[in-house]
């Protein structure tokens, strides 16, 4: 398996010149690294994205991943975000109205990622769990919108399918079923896809064998996926520079309310501390 080599290339600070990150061309590993790692695994990452997002990546200059972190303020986002950005949001994301209705931000293409809850038929951020469905529907009318669901397609579960319903008390603002306007989107292969938590981009991830459903966090999985996908975009565009990435609100210390023990936070912090050129990480505000 060559995923470790791919990760070395993704993290190499000379990524702007990918050839410099490969083994010496006199070595026996050179043709494998160049032909398979760059042209196959990076393409696999790109192909894992919904086609509508693939198209958007070819038209934008920066990927901005925004953590589900309540300390992020919209005034911060007003300063950070630009018209050439593609946004990535996670689960029951923060500031849904802002992303759906802001004059500039609502016009930016968006990728939404919803993580499967254990091995159940539920996903965080979708009914019957807490969700931003009204905001998602507004987003879908204003700009290209892609959705990735971890491990399996949305199963259209009901409230009685949620064995841990006490984790998310029902309020008046929470939709319990998918409205008809969004059903077609979830069935549209151009806009919606499934991403395995065991995708090759996290093949080196040290899971905890004693914790059920241990896996990488949503943010880290998409971080690795998009690092690889931008290599493929760079090749398609024959660009000197890869797409920039901005990671907003991904903490490296225990300041948020809950860090699930099934994610290997130490590994993720270690890896993100080695972010390659062109990747900026803004942590706690």
Q: Could you characterize what this model shows?
A:
With 285 residues, the chain is of the alpha/beta class. The chain has one domain (3-282). 34% of the residues lie in helices and 12% in strands. It contains 10 helices and 7 strands. A 7-stranded parallel β-sheet has the order 5-4-3-2-1-6-7, covered by helices on one side. α7 links the parallel β3 and β4. The longest helix is centred in the C-terminal third of the chain and has 20 residues, at 218-237. It is globular and about 50 Å long. The N and C termini lie far apart (39 Å). Mean pLDDT is 85; it is low at 13-23.
What is the number of E strands? 7
Discrete helix count? 10
* SSE string, helices as H and strands as E: HHHHEHEHEHEHEHEHE
Give the tally of structural domains.
1
Helix content: 25-40%
The largest pleated sheet is described as:
7 strands, parallel
Mean pLDDT across residues? 85
- The radius of gyration is 19 Å
Strand content: 5-15%
Structural class: alpha/beta
Q: What are the low-pLDDT stretches, counting only 5+ consecutive residues below 50?
A: 13-23
Apparent shape: globular
Distance between the termini: 39 Å
User: Could you give the order of strands across the largest sheet?
Assistant: 5-4-3-2-1-6-7
């Amino acid at each position: 398996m060559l995923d470790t080599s791919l990760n070395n290339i993704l993290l190499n600070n000379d990524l702007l010149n990918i050839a410099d990150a490969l083994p010496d061309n006199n070595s026996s590993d050179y043709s494998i690294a160049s032909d398979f790692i760059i042209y196959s695994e990076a393409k696999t990452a790109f192909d894992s994205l919904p086609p509508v997002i693939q198209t958007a990546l070819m038209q934008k200059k920066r990927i901005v991943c925004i953590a589900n972190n309540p300390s992020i303020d919209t005034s911060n986002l007003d300063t950070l975000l630009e018209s050439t950005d593609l946004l990535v949001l996670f689960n029951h994301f923060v500031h849904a109205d802002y992303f759906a209705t802001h004059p500039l931000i609502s016009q930016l293409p968006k990728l939404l990622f919803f993580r499967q809850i254990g091995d159940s038929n539920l996903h965080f951020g979708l009914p019957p769990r807490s969700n931003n469905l009204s905001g998602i529907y507004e987003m879908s009318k204003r700009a290209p919108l892609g959705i990735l669901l971890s491990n399996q397609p949305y199963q259209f579960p009901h409230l009685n399918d949620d064995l841990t319903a006490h984790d998310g008390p029902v309020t008046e603002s929470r939709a319990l079923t998918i409205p008809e306007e969004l059903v077609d989107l979830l069935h549209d292969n151009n806009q919606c896809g499934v991403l395995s938590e065991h995708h090759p981009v996290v093949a080196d991830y040290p899971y905890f064998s004693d914790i059920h459903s241990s896996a990488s966090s949503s943010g880290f999985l998409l971080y690795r996926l998009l690092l690889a996908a931008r290599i493929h975009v760079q090749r398609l565009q024959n660009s000197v520079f890869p797409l920039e990435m901005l990671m907003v609100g991904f903490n490296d210390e225990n300041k948020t309310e809950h860090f699930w023990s099934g994610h290997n936070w130490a590994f993720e912090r270690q890896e993100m501390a080695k972010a390659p050129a062109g990747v900026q990480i803004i942590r706690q505000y």
